[in-house]
Amino acid sequence: MAVLVFHLPRPAFAQQLSKEEMLFLTPEWKGERFPDGRPKVPDDLLKRMRLVTHEEAWAVLKGSNFRHQYEDGWLCINPDSVLVGRAVTAQFLPGRPDVHRVIDEKGHRKDGRIKSQNSWPIDMLTRGDVYVVDQFGAHEDGPTIGDNLGNSIFAKTGNGIVYDGAVRDINGLKEIGSFTSFVRSYHPSHHLNNPDGDLNTTLVGINRPTRIGKAFVMPGDVVLGRDGAVMFIPPQLAEKVVKTSEIVRLRDMFGHQRLREQKYTPGQIDNRWSDEIERDFSGWLNAYSDKLPVPKAQIQEYLKTRTW
């Protein structure tokens, strides 16, 4: 009888997945990738994603059986803006000196990392990224991010953060104009990072599968943060989410306009549209395609799928 032998990869503590591991865990993404294998959803889709609501994204994800991508209950920094970008993940655990020392040694001597562990993931950030951190809700003596690191993150990414823990210097973070962020709490203390003394956190993973509250986050997921909540959209569903949102938005605009004109009744618009209304909608799209908040090319693509 044949015996199957599985060779499991060695644990890669405090470092990102290998490219092979990243490809293995994200097989449904067929688009561009970063050199390390992380999915790279196009900038154009990220720009269009900023108008997507959680309701629209939720419907697409639930319909595709992705039911653990949403988390709320945040303290928001600059809550009137929208956070969109590609996830770079980091996972911390409560500090443990023996593990912390060997991770430090490996990071500094073998991996060429500098400074303390909380800066290692930040050094990897690029434009359009969102730093997504499992800080296990750490509060007093837990914050690893204040206004200095916040400014560094914003300079690299143009974005804020999703941080499952406390931050410090919250007034300084609010002064970074577009640093739209979702954090668990605020505390004026600073994290303790001395394995020979006080140690509150140890970094055990960068760009690995990560849990944020009840949500499962993969590196390269599209982060959508707005209205007090965050959704992590698998990259292979990003285009479907955006296109679905745009069609819903256009149909709502058309329906509201026709209701104001009293051309149709609320019952006609609220229910499944008749063939007459569908033809009217297609004609409306053609007439207003240069004035609508959806790319004209996408409107034309949609019209090609219509039967009238």
Automatic annotation (TrEMBL):
Mg(2+) binds at residue 169. Its EC number is 5.3.3.10. GO terms for molecular function: 5-carboxymethyl-2-hydroxymuconate delta-isomerase activity; metal ion binding. The keyword Isomerase applies. InterPro entries: RraA/RraA-like, RraA/RraA-like_sf. This is 5-carboxymethyl-2-hydroxymuconate delta-isomerase. It comes from the Bacteria.
